[in-house]
Amino acid sequence: MTKIITVEEHFQAPFGESAPQAQPETKVDPRGPKGNLVDHYLQNFDKRLAYMDKYNIDMQVLSDAGKSPQMAPDAQAVAGCRQVNDTLAAEIKKHPTRFAGLATLPVNVPDAAAEELERAVTQLGFKGALIAGLANDHFLDEPQYFPIFEMAAKLDVPIYLHPGMVRASERKMLYHSSAYSDQIGDMISLAGWGWHMEQGVQMLHLILSGLFDKLPNLKLISGHWGEFVPNFLERLDEFTGMVDPHLDRKFSEYYRNNVYITASGMFTQPQMDLGLAEMGPNHVLWAEDFPYLRREDQVASFLEQAPIKPDVREKIGHENAEKLFKLN
C-alpha cells in the first residue's frame, strides 16, 4: 500500500485569554448532524492519531485555517500566532513521524510575519506557512507583503495559499438571488465556489505581479486542485500575451514551475486527470482537508484505485510532499 502524507490538514489552538475570537471559516461539513466532530478533532491530537491509524494515513502536515490569530486585530495577531505555533510545535515534538507543521503568520503586520516565519522554521522546525484568504481585503501582491515571500524564498520553504472568508458584501452581490434560498447563496459563495474563485484570483495577482521573477525559487501551494487556475492556463497565456509583456515567461510556465496543487479532499477522477495533465506528476500533492472533510477510507483507497502508474501514485501519495517539505 502506498504511503500517505496529507498536506492540508487543520488544527485549532486557543490564543490570548482576552482576545476576541476571529470569525471561523465556515467550511461545508458533509457529515451533517455529526458536524460537532470537527471541533472534536481540531484540538484532540489523540483522536486525530486514532483516525489516521484507522484510515492508513502515515503523516499529516498541520495548519490553522479556522479561528486563526492571522485574522485577529494587529495588536493581538503577533502574540497570538506565536502562541499557536508554539502549541503546534509541542504536539509535533510528541509525534515527529506523524505530524509536521505550517506556521500561522500575522499577515497584516508583514515584517512581524516574516520574522515569525523565520522563527517557526529555524527554531520550531516548521516546513513552511499557510496564509488563509486576503489580508484585510488586500491581495498579497501589494508591496508591503513582499517580505513574507522573500523570507520563504530565503528559507526555501513553501507558502500554502488557503481560502478565507469571502466578505459579506461580495457574497450578497455575486451569489445571492431571489430565485433561490439564502442558504444556497451562502453555500456557493463559500465552499461551493466563492472562496475558491477568490483564492484563484489571489494566485493570478501574485504571478502577474512578477513575484517569481523577483523570487525564482519561491514555491506556493494551492488547494482544491488549484482553485480553478489549471482549467485556464492556456487561455491565460493567450490573453496575457496580447499586451506588452512585463514578465520573463508565460503565465503557465511560472505556474507549472513554482506552484504545487493538492486534492483537498476532492477525490474525483476528472479533477485528478486535469491536474496531472496540466501540472505533471511532480507538482501534485495529496490532502484530505481534515477535519472539515473526513473522507475516511477514501483517503487511501481513491489513490490506490486511481488509473495512474505506480510511480505517479507514489509521487502523489508521499514522495512530492517529502521533497517539498524536506520530511526525510
TrEMBL record:
Annotated spans, Disordered: 12-35
UniProt-recorded name of the protein: 4-oxalomesaconate hydratase
Organism lineage: Bacteria, Bacillati, Bacillota, Bacilli, Lactobacillales
InterPro entries per record: ACMSD, Amidohydro-rel, Metal_Hydrolase
GO biological process: secondary metabolic process
Pfam families attached to this UniProt entry: Amidohydro_2
PANTHER family: 2-AMINO-3-CARBOXYLMUCONATE-6-SEMIALDEHYDE DECARBOXYLASE, AMIDOHYDROLASE-RELATED DOMAIN-CONTAINING PROTEIN-RELATED
Segments forming domain Amidohydrolase-related: 46-327
Entry keyword annotation includes Ion transport: no
Cellular component GO terms held in the UniProt record: cytosol
Top-level taxonomic group: Bacteria
Keywords noted in UniProt: Lyase
GO terms, molecular function: carboxy-lyase activity; hydrolase activity
